[in-house]
From TrEMBL, chains A, B:
InterPro entries: EgtC-like, GATase_2_dom, Ntn_hydrolases_N. Residues 2-250 form the Glutamine amidotransferase type-2 domain. Pfam families: GATase_4. The lineage of its organism: Bacteria, Pseudomonadati, Pseudomonadota, Betaproteobacteria, Neisseriales. It comes from Crenobacter intestini. One of its GO terms (molecular function) is transferase activity. Keywords: Glutamine amidotransferase, Transferase. This is Class II glutamine amidotransferase. PROSITE patterns: GATASE_TYPE_2 (PS51278). It comes from the Bacteria.
Length: 257, 257
């Protein structure tokens, strides 16, 4: 199974601690050795690092670990290939522009026989079910609205689309435009919101702890979303199967299962 | 002035030698300290590294220098801001998907009062004249063709578009989809094609030489395109103002001034 990791905050935050445990799942503590990727928004701009090497051996992962990029929205993915060869164009996250903003998408799961019609606005470059699903989502939204709609309406339409697509198989995904982060659970997805008073957290995958009180300010609020909980001494919330959560400024804004 | 660097080859080649001299122009041997970026195609997939730090101090540039990514098509850019703030979303190269392929674009110059109408297919995310020009080019091509046209027809239309846009100011650019690389000269652009028999080249910006005979095979053909020649002991060809060159497999296929 692929692994997803997301972060949505009210202030630019580095993801080093979470990434430390997460990237080890790419070939060391778990079997996800078919490439990986991570996208960091800075305002509307985005950096996407992709690698078709396992994340535990990747020089690009090394860079990310040593270079504390501060971001309000991050999506990372470690791939276990189900559909599509192990090639760069099949690595998540995928990026497209819609309504004058970049949108980033990563998927964990397997959609059987999902073949939406060729898009007018968006077409896949690689051969994955995931990129087809991403293009289909954007295509549908872009046909419905010519510019960014009101947030509640966007949430409702994505909820409807997630329901439509998960009929084809496992469809855990994250989607962000640098302000909003949508997380959809089809089988496994967990989140935690860290805010004052901050405590010490200890990684599941590595004997590493961090005392967030020493690296945050009292107003910081950080939501971390992951396939499986990354720490073993905090209370993570499991999303229900079929649940879509919208995060903004580190807060779950809408939840609906 | 910004600096452009491009490479188009018939076999995946690393750009370390050219990048070694080029990246020093970002803050050390020249004044281009407003960010930089580089895009590497691997087949239809692409990696884009962007940084709003000067390239001579950037940890991302450090990674690129130490990690020999082999690519058939590369476009790199060092930015001297003329329009648009120094922000990540204003760093070149820009990327969009068209006809199921990624297209990469970088621009050196300054387009005064260039304000094409809002696009149906493509909209800028940042505030540069360069991204507006890129979106306008793709928008025009996408309206004209629903799928990749014949290469000669595409060249002719890009030649027409380049002429239209350079009426607004300096418009040196490079554009690639991972197979074709278009280079347009409005003021300064030079290229060299390296092929057997290979010789030793010596960088202008640094006391570094490489004997290409030791790192190539007899069938390799590599075109390098740069704002100014990168080596001082090879014969670079200057493009004429108004000239558009299309490279494929390391060969200038069409040239027209």
């Amino acid at each position: 199974m692929c692994q997803l990791l997301g972060m949505n905050c009210n202030t630019p935050t580095d993801i080093l601690f979470s990434f430390e445990g997460f990237h080890r799942r790419g070939g060391l503590t778990d079997h996800h050795a078919d490439g990986w990727g991570i996208a960091f928004f800075e305002g509307p701009g985005v950096r996407v690092f992709l690698d078709d090497k396992p994340s535990s051996e990747s020089p690009v992962a090394d860079l990310v670990r040593r270079y504390p990029i501060k971001s309000e929205n991050v999506i990372a993915h470690i791939r276990k290939a189900t559909q599509g060869e192990i090639r760069l164009e099949n690595c998540h996250p995928f990026v497209r522009e819609m309504w004058g903003r970049y949108w980033i998408f990563a998927h964990n799961g397997d959609l059987k026989s999902f073949a939406p019609p060729a898009g007018h606005f968006y077409r896949p470059v690689g051969g994955t079910d995931s990129e087809r699903a991403f293009c289909h989502i954007l295509e549908t939204l872009r046909h419905k609205w010519g510019a960014m709609p009101e947030t509640g309406a966007l949430y409702a339409e994505l909820d409807r689309l997630a329901r439509e697509i998960r009929a084809f198989g496992v469809f855990n995904f994250m989607l962000s435009n640098g302000e909003l982060l949508f997380a959809h659970c089809s089988t496994h997805l967990h989140f935690i919101v860290r805010q004052a008073p901050f405590n010490t957290a200890h990684l599941v995958d590595d004997d590493v702890s961090v005392d967030f009180a020493t690296v945050t300010t009292p107003n910081d609020r950080v939501a971390v979303i992951a396939t499986q909980p990354l720490t073993d001494n905090e209370a993570w919330t499991a999303l229900a199967p079929g649940e879509l959560v919208l995060f903004r400024d580190g807060t779950p804004l809408y939840r609906d299962a």
